Amino acid sequence: MNILYEAKDKIATITLNRPEVANAQNAELLDELDAAWTRAADDPDVSVIVLRGEGKHFSAGHDLSGGGPRPDKITLEMVYGGEARRYLDYSLRWRNIPKPSIAAVQGRCIAGGLLLCWPCDLIIAAEDAKFSDPVVMMGIGGVEYHGHTWELGPRKAKEILFTGRPVTAEEAEKTGMVNLVVPRDELDTRTAEMARTIAAMPPFALRQAKRAVNQTLDIQGFYAAIQSVFDIHQTGHGNALSVNGFPILAHLDEMKARIG
Q1: Which of 34, 51, 160, 245 is deepest in the core (most CB within 10 A)?
Q2: How far apart are CA 118 and CA 122, in angstroms?
Q3: Residue % of the chain over a pLDDT of 70
Q4: What is the tally of structural domains in the chain?
Q5: What are the helix (H) ranges across 43-153?
Q6: CATH code for the domain in which residue 214 is found
Q7: What strand order describes the sheet that includes 167-168?
Q8: In angstroms, how far apart are the furthest CA atoms of the chain?
């Protein structure tokens, strides 16, 4: 199973379960993940949702292994439709689920990994956590759910995009992207403590508090920006297709070296 699900004591825990590939996201994982989010949202006995990753790393992002059949011709229309569904619509839906959510992040959280943790209301990071988006070297201006400016501020966002370097857990906490940094062996325990504290609050009040903050961000332009920058992302794919097909795999070694 790509996703594990457990609901207990008002807390639903969703676990990314592909540790052998650092929880890289294939289509099946993302579809199962969306189903798990929906299950937790629809369960009246669940007050808080926790998202975590099994193994050493939270998520290495999209699975770029190249496995499985590939069509002879890839068009921008094909790329756009699949990414709009799984990389944008899913993330926005998870962000707006009317229950508090917490991401527990350890190890690497690379590119597509950001579109899993950024939609969560809180992020608790292990001391070894590193967040990166190195896709500029692919000719693309940033991952599909482009929350960089909102999460890091404009100058730090530009720095990590321009250089591809990782942001440490400590740096992420300073920008406000991460709520709490804890020792790796305490990550699950401290996340559970936070979840229990929140679960003790009145559910409707939690819903209204989340709605108030999210709507404030939307009034400031968050939702419109995420939608419009997704189209900018797609122009990168269009350019790559016009140059020599879809040359993502050619950049894997360079990306690995850049993020360490």
Answers
A1: 51
A2: 8
A3: 88
A4: 1
A5: 76-83, 90-96, 114-117, 148-152
A6: 3.90.226.10
A7: 108-110, 130-132, 167-168
A8: 55
